[in-house]
Amino acid sequence: MRPLFLKAAATALTLGATVASALFVTAHLKNGSAPLQPPVLNAGTAASVDAAGGTLTVGPSVQQSDQQPMTSTYAS
């Protein structure tokens, strides 16, 4: 009788957790039509925004340099 009780309790706990998580997710939807990833700026152009008296310039984050290429990332 004891193994049957344990199996029933485990099944009830699993079903309860599944229902609770499903209710939580459906209650906390922000925007169902929102894209999964934000749009990416074109790497060839820079965008400028003037907000609250300051200027923010967004451009490519990878810049070319004269440094030697890294050949190893091993560190002990």
Strand content of the residues, in percent? Answer: 5-15%
Radius of gyration: 27 Å
* Helix amount: 25-40%
Largest sheet properties = 2 strands, antiparallel
Can you describe this structure in just a few lines?
This protein is an alpha+beta fold and 76 residues long.
Keywords:
alpha+beta; two-stranded antiparallel ribbon; 34% helix; 2 strands; elongated; 76 residues
Explain this structure to me?
The longest helix is centred in the first third of the chain and has 26 residues. The mean pLDDT is 77. The radius of gyration is 27 Å and the shape is elongated. A two-stranded antiparallel sheet has the order 1-2. The protein is α+β, with helices and mostly antiparallel strands and 76 residues long. It is built from one helix and two strands. Strand 1 and strand 2 form a beta hairpin.
Write the layout of secondary structure elements.
Elements: H1 2-27, E1 47-51, E2 54-58
Antiparallel strand pairs: 1-2
